[in-house]
What does this fold into?
Amino acid sequence: MKFRVEVICVNDGGAEERRDVMEIEREELAMETLGLDLAEGKAILRGVQDFVASQQTTEDLERQRNCPSCGQRYQSKETGRSTIETVFGPVTLPNPRWERCPCQVEGPKTFRPTATWLKGRTCPERLYLETKWGSLIPYEKVADLLKEVLPVGESTNHETVREHLQAVAERMADGGGVGRRTAA
It folds into this structure.
């Protein structure tokens, strides 16, 4: 028996974009073959996360592509990409630099439209887990735990966890916070 995991994005205009995430084949039923194993689950999460984040970014960039003053399309100065560490693995997203519209006479000559939401290189939920676990167990164990149960990148290590925990602690001391999302 075969299983195919596919993600479908329906944009605001109703158009669909599809991506195959994974195909799984099972021969016979046994306790070891029942459902998904950890590696398959992590691969599915990473594939879905990559597609969702990519679609979100692409649609946001398209929405911002024209000057709000005159409607002219911004010219691209540089394409650029950024890798963001999420709780379900790293995602590499477009991070272009666009030239200021000729109708705008003040401000910088170029800008990155993702700057309105791209704050740092690690998502708040990932920082939350690193900070919570890093305050309870050694940083190296946190990195090992993240790698074992989530599809985080291999570059995750105890130094990264320590640096993130320190940065979050400093933000909290200054009145900021981790920015954890809560379930509705």
User: Anything to note?
Assistant: Strands lie at 2-10, 16-25, 76-78, 81-86, 89-94, 97-99, 110-111. Residues 180-184 have pLDDT under 50 and may be disordered. Helices lie at 38-64, 124-134, 139-149, 158-173.
